[in-house]
Amino acid sequence: MKEEFFSLAKHANFFKREKGLSPLSIALIYIGIGILWVFLSEQILALLVIDPANEQIVLLAKNFIFVILTGFLLYHLIRRSKEKQQRFQRRLQAVLESTPDAVFVVDAFLNLVDVNQAGSKILDIPSEQKPPLSFNALWEKLTLNDLEGNPVSLHDSPIHRALKGETILNQEISLDPSHNKSLCLSLSCAPIKNGTHFGAVCIGRDITEAKRLEQLRDDFVSDAAHEFKTPITTIKAYAQLMKAGKVDNTEAITAIERQSERLNRIVQGLIELSKLKGTLEEGTKEVLNLRELVEYSVRDIERATQRHSFEVTGEENVAVRVNRHRIEQVIRHILDNATRYQPKGGKVQIHVSTENQIAIISVRDYGVGIPTDRQGEIFNLYAHPHAETQYAYLSGMGIGLNLAWQFMRQQGGNIWFRSKEGQGTTFYLALPLEKGSELDLLKEQIQ
Amino acid sequence: VSDKNFDILIVDDDPDLLRVIELALNQTGHHLRFAEDGKEALERVQEKMPDVILLDMRMPVMSGWEFAREFRNHHGRAAPIVVMTAAEDSEIRAKEIGADAYLGKPFDLSHLHEVIEDALVR
Known about the structure:
The complex is a heterodimer. Chain A is α+β, with helices and mostly antiparallel strands. Chain A is built from twelve helices and 13 strands. Chain A has a six-stranded antiparallel beta sheet with strand order 2-1-6-5-4-3. In chain A, a hairpin with a 3-residue loop joins β12 and β13. Chain B is α/β, with parallel strands linked by helices. In chain B, 43% of the residues lie in helices and 20% in strands. In chain B, α2 runs parallel beside α3 (64-75). The longest helix of chain B is centred in the C-terminal third of the chain and has 13 residues, at 109-121. The chains are: A alpha+beta, B alpha/beta. At the A-B interface, α7 and α8 of A face α1 of B.
């Protein structure tokens, strides 16, 4: 700790403010030495054993020594001032290079005269290329767009406007440096003033990731609104029909119950998502029969759909030690997906088995399947594997599978799938079996 | 308008919603036909041109957008289209596909009647 402090303290010198000599003090030193020489030169020359009678030699010696002395003095003063200037420049350079935002300076002809590391990266300037860079070398390969995708001409760009004397703060533009990746930048530019404008300085902050997250959030909110509005439409309509006495009450209540269940599942997903911000807790674990939990969840989901039939097969007693709530949520979500992505209705087959101390639940549907090229992303948060396909309308909010994956991991289990486009998907949920559990379960059943 | 019986085609993939609209429009005397996706709706149109089409947007097989495009390409403005959508920008969406009117979900059944009558008058 102490060593670290001293090593830091050593570097602190780098930032020490140096007070240099002003031109007046240099002149005063010069005058002082001159006056001293005028008064003391005779005595000093006597000490150097030059015969004072030889007037010409004395005068010559006086002048020579004065020129040499002041010459050295000037050399020393100039060297000190130059070193100081270099140190200052190095410091500025280091600060500029270390700035995480891109900083670049252009001259009046739009040639790039200075750029820091972050700037080189953003403008895609190879490291072997050092500024100054000509206008053509730089701007011809750049495409500027506003965030709506409309091209921004160089003439209207913040850089050009700054050259004309305007100060632009935080203008968001998208930049396509080498036509292979698009970057969003928040660009601030100002003219460099020194009597007349002779250039412009720009600071660009990479906001690509922030923009991507903003877009995800917007899509999510719009999807969430859509998800809520669909069941609300039906519930509201049934309520109005009941009020007008235009519907059989049992029919209306059944439909309202079904749609409420759908709303409840959406809300549940949102609540779980908000919980994700904090730490994911394991929750209290208990020994339970996985088969019973599966059947319980199936009964629940059966009430929410008219078009699907469910079939549960496999082992009857499968004991696992898990948090009931978490695993139930995962099973429900997988069952929900099996119906959601089988929009015309059909069979959902659930099989419970054990293998090498592991319990496996498989959930097979005969629905639309997952597009092959998007299968790698389905466990990502806000994933939309069906986006831009004819099944885009089926997609939910892209939360459920991410949560399922996290919950399974947290409970010591795993989740994976096999899917074929147009033929359906099988999800597998694996959990470690509780040791000696069959005995415990039997005991529990007897009791 | 209500003196005459019209043929109304309702296109939505949610059976509960189809049923609700059926119940709401039952007593109007109009003839109701249903389709669960855009493709099925095109088949219904082939059988007989409806007087008005109530169209959902997010549907399997063929979405509302695709249906509207196909319909306009082949049949022009033979029947008015009323878009039903839960999208936030429903009005803009409706204009994009050249719909004659729109119903933002969730809607009042009284509003459903009004919009259909309006579309039929046009």
